[in-house]
Amino acid sequence: MDFETPIDQNHSFSVKWGKYKDRNILPLWIADSDYQTAPVVIEALQERVAQGVFGYTDQPSADVKEAIVYHLKTQHNWEINPEWIVPLSSIVNGLTLSCLVAGEEGDSVLLPATIYPPFNYVISNTKRTSIRIPILLEDGRWILDFEALEASITKDTKILLFCNPHNPGGVVYTQLELEQLHNICERNELLICSDEIHCDLVLDADKKHIPIASLNEDAAKRTITLMAASKTYNVAGLGFGFAIIADTRLRKRYKKLVLEKMPEANLLGQVATAAAFKDGEPWRLAQIEHLRKNRDYLMEEINTTPGLKMFPLESTFLAWVDVSALMLMDSEKFFEDAGVGISAGAYFGDSHFIRINFACSIETLEEAVRRIRKAIAGLSASG
Ligand SMILES: Cc1ncc(COP(=O)(O)O)c(C=O)c1O
User: pTM for the whole thing?
Assistant: First the structure.
């Protein structure tokens, strides 16, 4: 359980590290962690690789089904029928299929206005139109504007693409908020596609992730839940996630689309997910401790740096930082020139912000903070 020792990423074809190869820029952008995954995951993969046979495989394997059922029950108090599990090679593809399964070309899809960028392009790629719902800051938490959401629904609106915990901003929706949201969807007969990929990365001890589909029977019936071990266990390159769909007819239609439109989920991704969900909990808890410390350090530093503001982050390793006071023309370039590779908020729908990935060693984070502070000091000095 080592979250501090640097791993040489020069030969790993890492997208995160490749972007700044041979440049003195710390990569704190795409949502990968810098440290190794859980030892139990590495061992399970090594064992499977040692077998040396990699033919077509059951989708989902009995092993991964059992692990997912166990994980959802123990972590999220959600009892599912294993039949509800639909393996996916990617969660973004799962979003695409959710748009396709709901309605037809030209229909409208609701989504948060500030959101992980692929939410936008899955809608345009499937020839639907977007209705972007503002996210409001309430007591330091970024919450969908429920009133605006209900007011925006038209007769052509078929589905809400929801993200909980939210990326960016890390809000973990409460039971009351989820109930409000579900009520709106029930009243307006909307499907819900709930991307819960970050659900095992809740940092605040007093917050709990609640799958919206677990609220009640109606919520279960109208929801496609998307989950994966990929963010929590740093296995995004292994191509495995899953949808949980309780409604038999909806699941049948969705599975048909998976077969027609998507590559099969990856066998090694299944192995990693099964190991993570069965035996990875001690490592996950240790990681949460590490991330909490990094978050608290970063929050303190950001909020004492002139021109920067960070609100409490309930979950994820992705800090959402308001840089509007710096009046930057190009935030990505400014921070790259400072030696820190961030994600520009504009990609997520809000150019006043940047996103900083702090799933790295404390040493890397401290160096990033030093560089950011120096660049900002230079900005004020140059007037
Ligand atoms: C909210 C959200 N959904 C989906 C993904 C990507 O999932 P996948 O790589 O399985 O397509 C990410 C990656 O950061 C994400 O933050």
Answer: 0.97
Where b means 16+ CB within 10 Å and e means fewer, 305-339 reads: beebebbebbbbbbbbbbbeebebeebbebbbebb
Chain centroid to Cα 178, Å, comes to 18
Mutate to test the pocket of ligand 1, among 97, 172, 231, 315 (most ligand atoms within 8 A of CB): 231
CA of 226 to the centre of ligand 1 (A): 10
CATH number at residue 240: 3.40.640.10
The count of domains in the chain is 2
Q: Are residues 324 and 194 in the same domain?
A: no
Å from CA of 92 to ligand 1 middle: 6
Residues in the chain with pLDDT < 70?
383
Q: Where does a domain end: 279, 309, 335?
A: 279
Alpha-carbon gap, residue 26 to 366, rounded angstroms = 11
Identify whether residues 135 and 231 lie together within a single domain: yes
